[in-house]
Structures are given as C-alpha cells and as structure tokens.
Write a structure and sequence with these properties.
Strand content: 5-15%
Distance between the termini: 37 Å
Radius of gyration: 13 Å
Order of helices and strands: EHEHEEHHH
Mean pLDDT: 74
Oligomer: single chain
Helix content: 40-55%
Structural class: alpha+beta
Largest sheet: 4 strands, mixed
Number of strands: 4
Number of helices: 5
Length: about 120
C-alpha cells in the first residue's frame, strides 16, 4: 500500500480524513491517539458537529454520523466498523494501542460485532 501524501484539500484523493463525533469522549480519545501515533501522513481529524465542508460531503453521501465515524481515503468512504478497519490497517505497530486496534479491527466480522457496542458506549 502506498502512503497518501499530506494534504488538507477535501477533494484530494490522497488525503486521509476521519470524521468523528467530537463530543464523544471515546471517539475523541481514539482519534487523538490515532493521530499522535501516525507519522507517515497528515491525518485530517474533523468533528462531525463542525461546519467543515467534508461533513456536508459525508452527509450528502447518506452516511449517518450518529451511527459511526467515516474515513475517507483515496476517494473511498468507509463507515462505522469499516472505518475502524481502515484505520487499523493504516496504523503503525509501534504502540500497544495501535497493536490492539489492529488485532481487533482488521477482522471485519469481529469489528462489525464490536463496533455497535462502542457506539452504544458513546451514547452513555
């Protein structure tokens, strides 16, 4: 897999965008940890409650941001457990957090089984 180049343009197909619920402590912590661990690319973290153009873009494509985060990479959109799976594959193995994330979310069935629990936890 080639690494995307650093970019902040919404239309740039090489950019990595993570649109998440900024008021969710779990989502925020996860996204911050993910960003802190990534050194090979620019990661664009966007609060789904903001007026950022990518939020409107994601909603226009029919993704329910109340049901899960969205990752946009290479012109493709991934929602919920699939978004976590993309992040797991792209994350480094340099930390325990990333190794655990990769171990769980790189397996689609396991990710789809666990992700709804994470979303319910967010609502608490």
């Amino acid at each position: 897999m080639t690494m995307p180049s650093a970019s902040t343009e919404v239309g740039d197909t090489d950019a990595l965008w993570i649109v998440y619920d900024g008021e969710c402590p779990l989502c925020s912590r996860f996204s911050i940890l993910y960003r802190a661990r990534e050194v090979a690319r620019k990661v664009n973290l966007v609060d789904a409650r903001s007026q950022d153009p990518i939020v409107a873009e994601v909603r226009a494509r029919g993704f329910d941001l109340d049901a899960g985060m969205v990752v946009k990479l290479g012109g493709h959109y991934y929602h919920g457990a699939d978004a976590m799976g993309v992040m797991a594959v792209l994350g480094s193995d340099s930390t325990l957090f990333n190794r655990l994330n990769r171990a769980v979310f790189r397996h689609p069935r396991l990710a789809r089984g666990l992700y709804p629990t994470l979303v319910r936890g967010r609502r608490l």
